[in-house]
Amino acid sequence: PFPDPSEMASRINEKLTYLVTSRPTAVNLAIACGDLKQRVARAGPGATSKDLAEVVIAASEELMRTDTEGNLSMGSFGSKAIQEACRKRRSKDTNLRVLTHCNTGALATSSYGTALGVVRSLHSDKVLERAYCTETRPYNQGARLTAYELVHDKIPSTLVTDSTAPYLMSKGEVDAVVLGADRIAANGDVANKIGTYSLAVSASYSNVPFFVAAPVSTVDLSLPNGSGIPIEERSSEEMTHLPDGKRVVADGIGVWNPAFDVTPAPLIAGIITEYGTVWPNSSGEFDMKGFIDSAREGRGGSELPMPLSGAKGFTEEELKRYIQGDPDLKAKIPGDASTWSVKEVGDGNINFVFIVEGGEGRGMVVKQALPYVRCIGESWPLTADRAMFETTALVDGHEMCPDHVPQVYKFDKKVSAIFMEYLAPPNIILRYGLIDGVVYLHLADCMSTFLAATLFKSSLFALPSAEYRKKLAFYADNSPMCELTEQVIFTDPYGDAFHNRHNSPYLDADVADLRRDAAAKDAISELKAKFCTQAQALLHGDLHTGSVMVTQDTVSVIDPEFAFYGPMGFDIGAFISNLFLAFFASDGHETGQGEREEHRAWLIACCRDVWNLFQNKFLKMWNEKCDSSAYPELLFGAKVQDSDGARRICQETFMRQVFEDTLGFAGAKMIRRIVGVAHVQDMDRIEDAKVRADCEKRALKFGKRLLIGRATFESIEEVVSAASELRRSSSSGQG
Q1: Number of C-alpha atoms within 13 angstroms, CB side, residue 391?
Q2: Whole-number Å distance between alpha carbons of 158 and 130
Q3: Does the predicted model carry a pTM greater than 0.70?
Q4: What is the DSSP letter of 175?
Q5: Measured between alpha carbons, how far is 659 from 569 in angstroms, rounded to an integer?
Q6: What are 666-720's pLDDT values in tens digits?
Q7: Ramachandran quadrant class, 57 (left: phi over 0; alpha: psi -120 to 50; beta: rest)
Q8: How many angstroms separate the CA atoms of 512 and 490, rounded?
Q9: In the chain, N or C terminus with fewer CB closer than 10 Å?
C-alpha cells in the first residue's frame, strides 16, 4: 500500500513513535522501537518498501526468539534464586507458595514470560505448591490474563484481590513474591504496575523475599534512582465506569489513576535477569551497571553471592544512630550518644546481643537475630522470624510473671532486633556464677515461681479454650525453631551427624555405645513424639542456665526465641538438666579435692527444690481455679459429690506424667550437651581434656539413665540421690 519507500519509512517511524507513547514508563519498549527505527534507517536509499517491511519483520522475529530464550534463562535463574532465598529466610525450599502481580507471562512477552516464567520454572522444578495472582486493579490484568495462563498450564493457583495479598502474607501463606518491571533505575529502584510498592512493603514486614524479574533491557542506567522515572496516569474511566460504559461511582468525585508506582531498592531481595540474579549490597541497593557490564563481558551475574537477608548485623556506631533516631528508646539511656558504650556480649549459639549503656549505669539490651546459627555460620540458615516470636513470648511472659521476665521496649522486624530492659550489674548469667561456685539460695524459689506461673497461666488450666487455640496457632508458626530442636536434641546425638562433636578420643567408645543403644533410640523417639504433639502450655523452649540472669536477690529469665506450645516437662527438664550438668562439671573446676562439696550439695538441693516447689505452686493455682477448660466445674466443682477426691486423682495422674516427662527431657538435654553440636561452658571451660572427659562421662551416663529409666523413679529424692551416688562411685573408680 506504500509503494514509495520514503513514505513507508515515515509511516513505520510514526507507528513506532506512537507505540512508545502507549507505555511511557516501560523503557524496554522504547529501546525496541528505537532499534527498529535504526534498522529501517540503515536499509539505505536503494531499499524498496518491501525491503523495509522485511527488515521490520526479520527484526521482530529475532526479538521474539531472543526474548523467549532470555525468558527461559530468567525462569531458570529465578527458580534457583527463590529456592535459595526461601532456604535462608523461610527455612524451606520445596512446597513453595509464590505470589505474582499483573501479567508477565506469554500474553505479555513472546511465549514464556518474565515473572510468570519464573513461576513456570518453579512448577517444572517440582518445588511449587501454589501460585497466587492478584486481580491487579483497576484493569484486572491478573484476573483476566495471569489467571488464564495458570489454569491453561495446570499450575495450582488461587486468585486474590490486591488488598487481600498483604493479609495472605501475614498469615504465613506466601513464601516469596515475584513480579515484573517496566523500568529499573541504576540503583535498583523499580517502576512496575500500581500496587507493587504496597506488596513490597507488606513482604518486607512479613519477612517474605520480594523478587523482580525483568530483562536487562528494562534497566535505564541514565536514571540514578527511581525518582526520575515518568509515571503514566491513565483515564479516570478505568475506575469510574464498567467496560460496558456504565458509571458505578458518584459524579463529582475526584480520581487519581496512576498506572505504575516505584518500589525502593532496599525492599527488593533480588533482581532476576536473563544473565543471572543481581543481589543488593549492604546498603540495600543494586549495582545494575556493574552487573550489566559483567554480563556483556560474558561473565554473567549468577555467580554473585546472595546476602542472607535484608537485615544485617549492627555495628556499634550504627546501633547508636538507630537508638538516637527513636525518641522513646533514646530516653531510656542517659547522656549524649557520644558518651554511650556499646558492647557485643552474646555468648550463645544463635544470636548477637548488645549492651548499650549511658550514665548512671542505665541503658538497654539489644538482641539481633540474623538468619543463621551463630556458632556454625551461614551454612546453617535459620529464620529471622524467631525474633518476633521471642518478643511476643517476652511480652506474654512479663504479663504472666512480671518479677522474673524483663520488659520489652520495642521490636523492629526489619532489622530483626529486640530492644529491652537492661539488667545492669550485679546481674550476671547464671551459668557463669555456677562455674565460679556461687550459691544462689533464692534460685529454686524464683525459678519454680516462673515455671508454675508461665506453664499454668498459658494452658487450658487458666485460658478459655478459644484463647488457648489462638495462642497455639500463633506460636505454631515458630516451626523452624522447633525443627532445629527436633534435630539437635532428638535426632543428631544418636547418629553420625555432621555437626556433632565430642571430647575425642576419650568419649569415642561412649558415643559409639550411644549410637547403637536401641533403648535410647526408642526412648528419644517417644519423647520427640511428645515434643511435637503434646501442646500443653507455652514453653520458653530453651531454658538453660545461660537464659537466666541472677543477682543474690533477683532472677530474670531471658531469650525465649524457641517459644512454642509443648509438653510442660520440657521446660522443667531443660532447667534441671543444666543444674545436673553444673553438678557433674564441678569436679573439673576444683583446685583442691572436695573444694566444691558445699556447692555440689546446694546444686543437688536446688534440683530437688525446683521440682517440689513447682509442683506445690502449680497445684495451689489448680486448687484455686475451680473452673477451667481442662477441668470444668461441672465435673469438679464444689457441688459435685467427692469432687475433691476426683480432682486429687486427676492431679496425681497429671503430675506423675509431667514428672516422668521432666526426667526424660532432662536426660535428653544432658546427652545432647555432651555429644551434640552445642555444648555448655560448664564442661568446656575445664582445661584438662582428660578431667573434662571424666566429668562428661558421668553426666552422659546419668543422662542416659534419666532418658531410658524415667518411669522407674518414684520421687525427685530418688533422682538426686542417684546423681550423687553415680558421682561418688565413678569418682572413686567404682563405676
Answers
A1: 21
A2: 7
A3: no
A4: S
A5: 7
A6: 999 999 999 999 999 999 999 999 999 999 999 999 999 999 999 999 999 999 9
A7: alpha
A8: 17
A9: N
